[in-house]
Amino acid sequence: MATIRLGDIAPDFTAESSLGKINLYNYLGDGWGILFSHPADFTPVCTTELGTASKFKEEFDKRNVKMLALSVDGIASHHEWIKDINETQHTTVNFPIIADEDKKVSSLYDMIHPNADNNLTVRSVYIIAPDKTVKLIITYPASTGRNFHELLRVIDSLQLTAYHKVATPANWNHGEDVVVSPSIPTDEARNIFTKGVEEIKPYLRMTPDPSTV
Ligand code: BEZ
Q1: What is the pLDDT of residue 1?
Q2: 14-144: in CATH 3.40.30.10
Q3: Of 34, 104, 115, 173, which is most buried by a Cβ count within 10 Å?
Q4: Segment 107-129, tens digit of pLDDT
Q5: The listed CATH number (3.30.310.80, 1.10.260.40, 3.30.1020.10, 3.40.50.720) that belongs to domain 164-207
Q6: Annotated catalytic, 46?
Q7: What is the arithmetic mean of pLDDT over 5-28?
Q8: Is the CB of 51 under 6 A from ligand 1?
Q9: DSSP labels for 86-138?
Q10: Ligand 1 binding pocket mutation candidate from 36, 37, 38, 46 (most atoms within 8 A of CB)
């Protein structure tokens, strides 16, 4: 198992899932992907996370991001658990959950941290770009459920900065002012960003979000 770092190519795999056999690259096609692991089926925090993720699917779809969950339990367990998620979270799980019983995918993606737990995955998040490079890695402990608003926020930043020479400041949300990339001189920035560039310091230049009209 090699460590995966930002900018690496996301390793491809084929695995069983709640929606049948799935190949990562075929599933993602030429879109974005989010791969996120859960410690185990029939656990309370994971149940709320998967319910929340299902309710957020429309937002991931709008951003052309395919969702793919994983836990190390088997298919039959996943199907039973999905019934509970649907019932208790008032939703319908609408994306595949990998059944990683042999821990092939969790090992490939370094989702088991033995000093945290030798058998269960931590809450890993990988965001994968259309060119299959890994753009974001976040790891949460089993005791902390993820914030799906934050995952959408960071996807907005990744997608914006993939296509515009900008970076997003602390607590940024879609539509708010962004930072001009440090590599662009201010004169050049004023030609590129026609909505205006405010130079607060030579290294700190702000411009309106170039993706909004
Ligand atoms: C949970 O999802 O609730 C959970 C899973 C493993 C350890 C602790 C909590």
Answers
A1: 59
A2: yes
A3: 34
A4: 999 999 999 999 999 999 999 99
A5: 3.30.1020.10
A6: yes
A7: 98
A8: no
A9: HHHHTS---S-EEE-TT-HHHHHTT---TTT-SSS--EEEEEE-TTSBEEEEE
A10: 46
